[in-house]
Amino acid sequence: MNYLLDTHTFLWYIDGNSALSDNAKAIIGDQSVVxxxxxxxxxxxxxxxxxxxxKLTLDFESLPVFMERNGFKNIAIEFGHLQHLNKLEHxxxxxxxxxxxxxxxxEKLTIISADQHFKSYPVTTLW
Length: 127
Known about the structure:
Number of helices: 6
Structural class: alpha/beta
Number of strands: 5
Strand content: 5-15%
Helix content: 40-55%
Distance between the termini: 15 Å
Radius of gyration: 14 Å
Number of domains: 1
CATH topology: Rossmann fold
């Protein structure tokens, strides 16, 4: 099974936040599973840092190295993801999360997220 981390999941993993569930920690720490981080998440992180709403425990510029060391692959935003995004119901108002949902549906990925809004969509989630 392949996984896509929600933005907060990725941030909590970076910071070692205790809010990250034991199940999520186990999957993320398993080097045998494929884990993706969306360009949408990296974009959201960049925007929040620029607005002063987020501080990371590491420099933003070092995220690619962190991702590589921890077995994360970047999933780019493709046109097919945007086509599917146009068809999604508006259960969730967060634009970045909606794009992550669209990517997960299109690529058949399980989303690791505590966000209960995701369950309104035809996507597999776990926490």
